[in-house]
């Protein structure tokens, strides 16, 4: 086993976040008494459904893998399902209805959009405990609790870093979002957080694309900006490639690209490369592949999330509640439980906490 030496204060903080969350879960379990551990004492297994947005994105693959492992630990009979692809509301609705019909005790779900709100409400009315992972619904109280990254902060970290990298030069920006026909909190929080980090005024904080298309940014040394496009890449590499092509057709001088996730970023980079262009690319996810893209220079910086921790917290919470334990609480000042975030980059800038790609690789997820 490789010995890890901690030399970066922000890296230590990232590790501390994960350790603190793990401690909180352990303490919560201990508060139930020594003989009340989930699955102990001959307790019957409980039914839980994990419903992700799809089963191909490395983020959701990692979450499913973690949930399966935690199901065994918590004596849970787990059913895993997902939409066919990003945007498949009906696929998630069907999975929710199936969970109700099976008599499951709870649902862990990464909500596709507000289109599944009614189905989640129906599940709660049927007596299921519903926990959102990664994507807080709007409104937040549609579910019992959410375990997620602070996506606004994730976007903001990338924006602050990007503004410093521009060093006062004009910013010609492409925003590659998730959808253009659905409202998803992850989508607008990351996009709007990025703009806030760059120092661009947003209009409606829950709406993408309504900010002024040109003006001055105040992040870093400050300068002028032009927003060329808000294009939907559907969170996929091919979608990112097509979205970037559409943006370059509008303005070939784009020098800063925000992407909703790392597959989108890889697709965007492919389009830039094919056009003989380069740009600063920032993203969110922090999977091992994405961290590798940072190390290779494809992505300048990415905000790392912790999907395995989300799955662990959600699974333990449902198992505990189903067996008479207390419900979890949200993080102070937030309407969800914050599972932590760390910016991964090999181009550190003053005033923005970050960890290197080598450090990020030690705590990443996926292949």
UniProtKB/TrEMBL annotation:
Q: Which Gene3D superfamilies match?
A: 3.40.50.2300
**InterPro entries in the cross-refs:** Peripla_BP_I (IPR028082), SBP_2_dom (IPR025997)
**Which keywords has UniProt assigned to this entry?**
Signal
Q: Which domain of life is it from?
A: Bacteria
A single GO CC term for this protein reads: cell envelope
Q: Which residues form a coiled coil?
A: none
Q: Which residues form the Periplasmic binding protein domain?
A: 49-325
Which Pfam family, giving just one, matches this sequence? Peripla_BP_4
Instruction: State the name under which the record lists this protein.
Output: Fructose transport system substrate-binding protein
Task: Point out the signal peptide segment.
Answer: 1-28
